[in-house]
Design brief:
heterodimer; A: 402 residues; alpha+beta; MetI-like fold; four-stranded antiparallel beta sheet; two-stranded antiparallel ribbon; 12 helices; 66% helix; B: 424 residues; mainly alpha; 18 helices; globular
Chain lengths: 402, 424
């Protein structure tokens, strides 16, 4: 206490100077602090932008996205759309986006399946399977994902045989160190009927499920929805496929010289990235699933059994819906992680966004600023979209409270 | 057989039946309790039988530990070729740190282990000095590892200024605020004086080692430890900022956190390595390792902030209100009431973020820093040792597994120690 009189609390306030009065007023202080913060933030951004402009001008680069229209002059071996070295950087970016989406979506699917299996194994009463799952999860979680990717890639490239001594898988597919070669389907016109039937089956299953639920609500009659849907989606198209005389030609890969020609090939880079990302994320999802199922109190199961509900329906109608509420939020952040971790593709040469526009295009054009803005913007959009979808889903399954 | 007669209630306790006790009971309950369980056990046994012997043979019995190159390895045995690792052990540990100066790294590592033990082990003797040691270690480590005149000048200036300022604070001035200003003045003057003197005289105790020589496990530890120690306080500040009721601060924090969490670390490292100099005043440039450290810390702090926010939200509002009612200001209320509870709740998440940061440090290979993985990849390019990727990656994986598993175990121990509720 500097002036010795400031003991009396409120009574001593008028004796202080205006500045300290302002500072001791809660509302005034919050305004001051915010104004200072705003000035600092704006100042920081302004200095960054002016510095960037000055620096870019000094080396004569400028800032424009015109380079996107120029030919890219490099090849991309794994692509989902038409692309050659004369295509533009913009086209290369599209190839990269599709490759990222491909590995992210297939990774999400495989990781979810594996993760749920792991979670259930971790809950199993069988000591041996429980411990195997535990060892797997601990090993995977404590080692960087980049190492997993490189390890799987290294194993594929160095341990799988050369095309000459390829491992045949099934009929007409081959596993080699240059990738997984498999027959490419060339559909005839009648095949579209089969594909149409498949989609018709999907639509039918959707509406049938709705109708069956309505009937059950009204009358209590339960239809075997799962089996009827399965028949509509799978059995009918398969029967049609054979009835129409298998209207698909297969372009099988054949060994010519040192490599396979024809058919389809999944490159080792994709397989390595896909498997490693899925195995890695599955370990995390496994723990999430385990925690989610454990979070449903045992009384719920007991109550359901006491009502005479069968074990399967107890799981389906009582345990899983409640567990999902716990599982979904952390699960969505794992899906985000897969998408972001897919950028590690760079390390093994899978051409995703980071490797195309943020890698080779960046190096060839020297436009770091523009390329990195595009790459970061794309990842931000993907992240926001996944979190929006997951928030929507989370809201849909949320417990309706008062 | 003559059967002995017992009065009712006097029969001695019999041992439980053979099948209901000991290992037999355990096996029956845990491995063979039902048909599905039996099937699972058999399947798991088969799986282990298929995997374990092969892996064991590859790693140990069929492995080569001494050889000159890959071909010799393959000629000697069919399994792993650890000779490669053995030959490059030093590279994997120190990177290109000058051979004559490596004792400095070893001393720093020993000091690091000692500090960690002092900080984390509750029964360690001399624990009352843990704050002093914890504050001194970073400076000593910086001095030992980087060395050189300008580093030493800065550290010396800081240390001398601190001591002088302390004495000034003790002796001079009649009231608190005068003491504070006097000691601040003394601090600044002494710091500038010592720094100029030291650099002008060119004094140097340890040779300067430039940071691009750093590599191997040493680099991983530097990035990991720096990131971990700095990201926690920064994360706490960001989390408090996000919870703040001052809208500008709140939205600034939200914007920062969501941006960092929305992009992969690789892209941020790219920015640090190629673009950061654009955003600085023309002509300025600073050390790549320092830029990487800043980026990694910022990245981890955004995740840390979200973890801590979860903890803050879990602290009942009544706690803050009670602190208000006691007349505590925002700072003490947070420091003494809210944060201890919030941090305790978020320990698992915090340690997970630490582990994530530590693991993410391998990503620095994409911008050309030589962490163990980078050393491994560079070594694999050597034609003498081509194709040994599995050995290299497994070796690095074991290093990460051991350190991350240790962190996770300590976190579990800490959770148990701080658990004050009733265990069910």
């Amino acid at each position: 206490m500097s002036n010795g009189t400031a003991i009396g609390g409120a009574g001593s306030l008028p004796q202080r100077n205006a500045l300290s009065r302002l500072w001791n007023n809660k509302e005034a202080r919050s305004v001051i602090v915010q104004i200072i913060a705003l000035i600092l933030i704006i100042g920081l951004f302004a200095s960054m932008v002016t510095n960037a402009i000055a620096n870019l001008e000094a080396i004569g680069k400028g800032f424009s996205f015109k380079f996107l229209g120029q030919p890219a002059n490099y090849d991309i071996n794994q692509r989902l759309i038409e692309y050659n070295s004369q295509s533009s950087h913009f086209r290369a970016m599209q190839v990269g986006i599709l490759n990222t989406l491909l590995v992210a979506i297939s990774g999400v699917i495989l990781a979810t399946i594996l993760g749920f299996i792991l979670g259930v194994l971790r809950l199993s009463k069988n000591w041996l399977t429980n411990k195997i799952a535990l060892v797997y999860i601990e090993y995977i979680r404590n080692v960087p994902v980049l190492l997993h990717i490189l390890l799987v890639h290294g194993l594929m490239v160095h341990s799988l045989p050369k095309p000459k001594s390829a491992i045949p898988v099934g009929d007409g597919s081959f596993l080699t160190n240059r990738g997984f070669f498999m027959p490419k389907p060339l559909p005839e016109d009648l095949m579209w009927v089969v594909i149409g039937l498949f989609f018709a089956g999907l639509v039918f299953a959707f509406f049938f499920r709705r109708w069956a639920k309505k009937v059950q609500d009204a009358t209590g009659k339960i239809y075997p929805v799962f089996w009827i849907s399965l028949a509509a989606i799978v059995v009918v198209p398969v029967l049609a496929y054979f009835a129409l005389g298998q209207p698909v030609n297969w372009d099988t890969p054949e060994l010519k010289g040192f490599n396979f020609k024809g058919g389809m090939v999944i490159r080792p880079e994709f397989i390595a990235l896909w498997l490693a990302l899925s195995f890695y994320t599955a370990a995390f999802i496994g723990e999430i699933v385990r925690a989610g199922i454990l979070a449903v109190s045992h009384g719920q199961t007991e109550a359901s059994m006491a009502l005479g509900v069968s074990r399967g329906r107890t799981l389906k109608l009582v345990v899983i819906p409640q567990a999902l509420r716990v599982i979904v939020p952390p699960l969505s952040s794992q899906y985000l992680n897969i998408t972001k971790n897919s950028s590690l593709a760079l390390a093994i040469g899978y051409m995703d966004i980071t490797a195309t526009i943020g890698g080779i295009s960046l190096n060839q054009t020297g436009r770091e600023m523009e390329c990195m803005i595009i790459v970061m913007g794309l990842y931000l959009i993907a992240s926001l979209m996944i979190s929006m979808f997951m928030n929507w889903y989370n809201k849909r399954i949320k417990l309706v409270e008062r | 057989m003559p059967e002995q007669q017992y009065e009712p209630g006097t029969h001695p306790d019999l041992p439980p039946p053979f099948a209901a006790s000991g290992p037999v009971k355990w096996v029956r309950e845990n491995l063979f309790s039902s048909p599905t369980n039996i099937a699972l056990t058999v399947l798991a046994m088969f799986f282990l039988y298929k995997i374990i012997p092969g892996m064991f043979a590859w790693t140990f019995t069929d492995a080569t530990f001494v050889a000159a190159d890959r071909n010799e390895c393959r000629a000697l045995n069919s399994g792993a070729c650890w000779a490669f690792i053995a030959q490059r052990w030093e590279l994997f540990t120190y990177g290109f740190y000058p051979e004559t100066e490596r004792w400095r790294v070893i001393i720093t590592f020993v000091l690091f282990v000692a500090t960690v033990i002092l900080l984390l082990w509750e029964k360690c003797p001399g624990r009352q000095y843990r704050f002093i040691v914890g504050a001194l270690f970073p400076m000593v480590a910086l001095w030992l590892i980087v060395g050189g005149s300008s580093t030493e000048a800065a550290l010396m200036a800081y240390a001398a200024a601190l001591v002088v300022a302390y004495f000034v604070y003790q002796r001079f001035g009649h009231n608190l605020s005068a003491r504070f200003w006097f000691s601040l003045l003394a601090f600044v003057l002494v710091a500038i004086g010592v720094y100029t003197l030291w650099t002008a005289m060119g004094w140097s105790m340890l040779e300067h080692v430039s940071t691009d020589k750093f590599g191997g496990f040493m680099l991983t530890l530097i990035i990991g430890v720096t990131g971990i120690t700095l990201s926690l306080p920064l994360g706490i500040l960001l989390a408090l900022g996000r919870q703040s009721n001052l809208p500008i601060i709140k939205y600034a924090c939200i914007g920062f956190i969501e941006f960092i969490r929305g992009v992969p670390l690789i892209t941020l490292l790219f920015v640090a390595s190629t673009m950061l100099s654009y955003f600085l005043p023309p002509g300025t440039n600073f050390d790549l390792l320092l830029r990487v450290l800043i980026m990694v810390t910022l990245f981890a702090s955004a995740y840390m902030a979200e973890v801590i926010r979860g903890g803050l939200q879990a602290v009942p509002k009544g706690q803050t209100e009670a602190a208000d009612a006691m007349g505590l200001k925002y700072g003490p209320a947070m420091r003494l009431i809210v944060l201890p509870q919030a941090l305790k709740i978020s320990i698992p998440g915090i340690v997970n973020t630490f582990i994530g940061l530590y693991k993410d440090s391998v990503l620095v290979i994409v911008i050309g820093l030589l962490d163990p993985l980078g050393i491994g990849q560079a070594s694999l390019a050597d034609t003498k040792w081509q194709g040994l990727s599995t050995e290299v990656y497994l070796f690095v994986a074991i290093f990460f597994f051991v350190s991350c598993y240790a962190m996770a175990s300590y976190s579990r121990h800490l959770e148990d120690k701080l658990h004050t509720g009733h265990k069910r």
